[in-house]
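Quick board copy: two proteins, each given as sequence then tokens.
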Amino acid sequence: MAPGGFLLTAFQAGAGERVERFHGYGHDVEFTNHRHDPDHLAEVLDDAGFDVLVRLHRAPEGRERTPQHLVLAPRTP
């Protein structure tokens, strides 16, 4: 990513859990959810040359079972 470019990412918040799934969205499928620690991800982004500007953490809504987290971070020049 070019310096000054913005990274916007959203993810399921957790403590690094890996959750195996065998059914999703009304279908039999196999997939893995990774729940990321928001503080750890902010540290990783900082170490990679990003300046974390915004962090939004919210409780699960509707059918969600896991807290959600959003990060907005430009790449430092």
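And the next:
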Amino acid sequence: MAPGIIPTRPRTGTTPASEFTELAAVVRASGLMRRRYGYYWTKLVAVPVVLAAGIVAFVLVGDTWWQLFTAVGFAVIFTQVAMLGHDAAHRQIFVSGRWNDWISLILGDLVVGMSYGWWRRKHTRHHANPNKIEADPDLDLPVIAFTPQQAQAQRSPIARWVVAHQGVFFFPILLLEGLSLHASSVRRVVAREHVDRRWVEIGFLLLRLGGFVALVFLVLSPGIAAVFLAVQLGIFGVYMGMAFAPNHKGMPLVPKDARLDFLTRQVVMSRNIRGSRILDVAMGGLNYQIEHHLFPSMPRPHLRRAAPIVAEYCRERGVPYVATGLWESYGIVVRYINRVGLGERDPFECPMIAQRQTI
């Protein structure tokens, strides 16, 4: 499918609302919405075991530059834990919302150092309006311009130059994403902005962020400790960014006043990443972004099985379903933000989208 083009869908005798209802019935009948307690309990039990092993290894290795490899290991662990927290936040693990909330708080705030309350509100808005201008918070980043309006809003010569070359800087900028996530979490929790269980989050974040930094400087000399933290935060940010960036960037943009049916809104603005089960683990199931947006509470291990069902259903109804390779997706993202930065008018925007049938 050419970016930004939504072909006219054939008449199927069903309304857009009933189309998703029909798909949901097929998916539920396939048993793909049932809980996977064994899968998730295994992961939840593994978290403290792996963390304890990492801390023991860190202490035993001692004050040496070899600890930079340990820093990379911690970055991978924290990213994988964040992905597990993402599953809990979407109610994939337990039936009980309270249990899912507390698992998300423990994994997000206490282990990773990211505010669950802040992230939940932001991520909920994204799921409701993927790639919708002025509605999707994932389109609003302080450094990268994802829309022509954002690029044109830059006033200083330095900012305009950075945006004009943002394709080159995109992945290096991700080195700062880890620091940004921690800083945003602390700022929003302290500011009391849309955060439940505020004091629990403050306690968890203080323990995680303060305790981890204290441990690092206790074991390592100041110079090595500073580099260790920089590497850990940098790799964490790059890993998080490379897992999330391919999912929507470079897909059609939705005008802020457009109204779309649920199936179209979630499928057309999302991109799947083809790959093996190793990629499923590395990306935490986010490579099945279309299925995840359609069925957010579907357990991660069922997404691979749901993908061909959803793809065939969309093909039969003329709904564009996009799946690419991982490296191809990164190329699409970089080319897209280059086009935005160079001032191309409305790159990848959907001129037909407001004319589509709405509900």
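Board note added afterward: The radius of gyration is 21 Å.
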